[in-house]
């Protein structure tokens, strides 16, 4: 029978976590302990089942991230129903189970960031922010403080430990590969992270869940942003923006032709075609958003092309910093494929300049640009602006 303990104290985002050296001392007391981040879905359930079956001292932790009316997130992850499912799986595996309250950190690091980016005319990526600031920051440090050697999650990605330094690799199942969301992992923490599902397909994961008799084996996947009820992000952002914070303005073509007005730039994203409310002789797409005056610039499909981009706040996984230009592949959206490009880093290693081999459409400020060399994730950063 699993033990359920609710951590009612929100973890301060400013508290000092243990250093990796201090964590080594803690881990020596409980060899092979692994904390499994359990969201209540089939992937994290199988992750816990695999590690428990391999003899690890597995401990399940679910993150309580927000408290809103039940109906607003019945189809998302981390809802009360999901926490119950995670507890049920942990109980069936006979492993301890805890619920940690990270609501304050989630609101500050993910929800407020999400709204702020739309306020600035950018398109956020909350899954990357959640990984960077919660799973592989606060939860990782909590795991080390509990004496765990590893933190394990159900991400479809791999870590190659055969060389001098661990490398992050793409998941084998290309339809589920989640390495794009993981470029912000701390380089020094790669040796502390386990991704047991990275070498499997989704179908194989479900079959393992059936074999284990897990209740989540047939559970549907969440497709929406977890904190946006009903998937209507525009209404969610509008509700949190005050009247003074909404930025109405004009819609114009790239040549300056006035086409209409709008009541908030938070309703638009670069590359958007639907929902513009315009009648024109050709299909129009959002090319740029100017938060300073609320102008939304639209143009034809070919006008979306950019030869490169500037990425800021870059994180490097394969090296401390690049020593010269890198010929690699760059992925600018989760649903896209990596494309050949040349990445150059200036004096500041957190800024990268990307030149595509072929122009790319809808390079979107606020999204991630992730750098690959074959299977390996070299690093990545946040798109600041496209370059023509």
From TrEMBL:
GO biological process, one term: tRNA wobble position uridine thiolation
Family the UniProt entry places it in: Belongs to the MnmA/TRMU family.
Enzyme Commission number(s) of this protein: 2.8.1.13
Sequence ranges assigned to domain tRNA-specific 2-thiouridylase MnmA-like central in this UniProt record: 235-299
One function term, GO molecular function aspect: ATP binding
InterPro entries attached to this UniProt entry: MnmA-like, MnmA-like_C, MnmA-like_central, MnmA-like_central_sf, Rossmann-like_a/b/a_fold
Cellular localisation: Cytoplasm
Gene: mnmA
Site feature Interaction with tRNA, where: 155, 367
Predominant place of localization: cytoplasm
An annotated GO cellular component: cytoplasm
Gene3D superfamilies listed in its UniProt record: Adenine nucleotide alpha hydrolases-like domains, HUPs, Translation factors
Organism: Lujinxingia litoralis
HAMAP family in alphabetical order: tRNA_thiouridyl_MnmA (MF_00144)
Top enzyme class: transferase
Interaction with tRNA: annotated span: 176-178, 333-334
Ligand binding (ATP): 37-44, 63, 154
Keywords noted in UniProt: ATP-binding, Cytoplasm, Disulfide bond, Nucleotide-binding, RNA-binding, Transferase, tRNA processing, tRNA-binding
Its biological purpose: Catalyzes the 2-thiolation of uridine at the wobble position (U34) of tRNA, leading to the formation of s(2)U34.
Reactions catalysed according to its record: S-sulfanyl-L-cysteinyl-[protein] + uridine(34) in tRNA + AH2 + ATP = 2-thiouridine(34) in tRNA + L-cysteinyl-[protein] + A + AMP + diphosphate + H(+)
Residue span, tRNA-specific 2-thiouridylase MnmA-like C-terminal domain: 307-383
Record: active site: 130, 226
Name of the protein this chain belongs to: tRNA-specific 2-thiouridylase MnmA
